[in-house]
Structure formats: C-alpha cells, structure tokens
Amino acid sequence: SALLAVHRHLRAGNIALIGFMGSGKSTVGRALSGLFGLAFAETDAMIEEAAGMPIPEIFSRFGEAHFRELESRCIAQAAAMSGAVISCGGGAVLRPENVDALRKNSLLVLLTASPETILARTQADTSRPLLSGKKTAADIENLLAARQSAYENAAGITIDTDGKSVYQICEEIVLSAAGLAG
Ligand code: S3P
Question: In terms of pTM, does the model score above 0.90?
Fold first, then answer.
C-alpha cells in the first residue's frame, strides 16, 4: 500500500517540508508525523532554542545574516536525522548548501498556496519579521516570485494546499511519495 511504501522509506529517510511562510509546513508536518508515529522537527523551533530567544528578536538584535547562519546549522542537524518529518523555515532552501544537506537523506516536499491564501493564513501573525508591513496579496506575490525558482529547484514533489484540509494534503503527500518509492 501507499502507506507501507512511505513508511518503509521513512525508516531510513526523512520527509522535509519546504515552501513559503504560511504554506502549511508546520500544521501538515505535525499531522503527518502523527499519522506515522514519527519524530517531528521544526527548524524554526531548533533555531529559537539554540539562540535562546524568539525569531523576531534574533532578527532585530543580530540581523537576518546571523539568523541564516543559525538556520544552516539547524538544517544540518535536522538533515542528519532519520525517520523524521522536518518542517523547514520558509527561507531554508535559499542556500544551496541547505538543499544539498537535506537531499542526502530526505524527500523534499514543496507545499504551495496562492498569495491570497498565504495572506489570510499569516495576516494576524507577528512572529515573521519578513512579513511585517507586507499587508497585501501583491506584497506576498513579490516575495514569492523572488523565491519561486529556489523552491521549484529544491522540490522532489510539489503539493498545492489551496482549499484542502490538512488530511487531504497528508494523503496527497503519501500517494505522491509512494509513487516515487515505487
Ligand atoms: C522565513 C520563514 C520563517 C522563519 C523566518 C524566515 C523566511 O519560517 O524561518 O521568519 O525567510 O521565509 P516559516 O516559513 O515557518 O514561517
């Protein structure tokens, strides 16, 4: 079955969720790890724990470049896991070294959503420095356009999340991943 094929893959490898802020990586990752009874790692949470402060404070005190250094270290740690679902920060695949590290042992699953959906999901949120002041779908679209090729180049499979439930998205990931596993 598809579940068994993916489960077999996950005994050795990981599923790494990538994509823009608000594409559903954390929510879907948590659900997917629950379905399989697997470990769940979130690179943003690892960064906050390593730095001992929330992400907005890392950005405001030390700048984005420092955040990206911490992020690369946490990606390397997460990439070395096996049998885990890894939710990667939205900017994690902007560095080729991060993509290379993840590819060694993980299937990279790109989650996508329309700018309108992303706006709706992130509107009330104050924990994402790169979205502060970005209050229209056009703002989101510009950021998205700048990253589109990085996301697409990194992706092993791509799942659109617009209008779908968490479990529909999990099901599509499983079926798509099972197709790859054969
Ligand atoms: C970022 C996305 C965030 C977090 C940081 C930077 C980005 O993660 O890593 O605010 O550059 O897209 P989420 O995608 O989980 O929001």
Answer: yes
